[in-house]
Amino acid sequence: MAQLVVAGAVFLATAGMRDDHGVGFAGGALAWTPRVLLLIVLAGYLHWLLFTLPAMALARLLVAPPWAALRAALGAAAVTAAHMAWATSVWDIPVGWTVVWIAGTGLLPVTAAWYAHHRSLGWGAMAARIGAVTGAVLLLAVVGGFLQEWTHWHAYEPLRLDRSQYVGDWTGGGGAYRLRLSESGEAEGDNMPLVDENAGPWDSCSGTGTWAFVPQPEAGRPAHDGMRDRITLTIPGCGALRDWQAAGTVDRPQLFVVKGAPGTPSVITLHRP
Description:
Elements: H1 2-13, H2 25-32, H3 37-61, H4 66-91, H5 95-119, H6 123-151, E1 168-172, E2 177-181, E3 186-193, E4 204-214, E5 230-234, E6 243-248, E7 253-259, E8 266-271
Antiparallel strand pairs: 1-2, 2-3, 3-4, 4-5, 5-6, 6-7, 7-8
């Protein structure tokens, strides 16, 4: 639970270094913090059940004969691969970051458990040490967040691409949404989400139409439609698709649209397959 709290604090402290897609997820996260305390407890328990407990059990097998150690290593690799495959398919995140996340979140609790066992510490003593370390890290996260906001160090800048770089296939929602943009200005949408006020969460539309590239305004000019490049889709019979704005990085560009009420926005993203 402590590392989940610290991870959330670091996430908020580095919010200015990532793209918030215009919805300000840092403020939204702060507003939801009192409501997710129970979820943090549940997530901590599930983390212990899925990562820490199996890791400790596999560690005990390492003192068994070599064949048992090999079996434990293969089992751990299989579990890690399953977690990695599930995470990359659901959240569309790079494999490398997935491996680092699984290894990092699993290493800290196992190290703490080994330390407590080695020093013969009880629950109270171990909780006190974890609390002290957590408090120090939270203080560093708060100071770092203020410094990042003040200095704009590595602050995110909206993506700027040429029109030709938008041509090609885009996908999102784990492959559920598909969009093809041609050089001639034709657009083909497959199961594209509808984002007007009357659309349901699963309403979608498929068809062909046109697309246009609208670059962000130059410096000093009014930005009536925001400060991002955007793609305007026109597909007959699909109703409101709205403009898809540019996000992400040059290596992993994205198109996104915000759906839902201002108080509870939902961001839908498309990326290169």
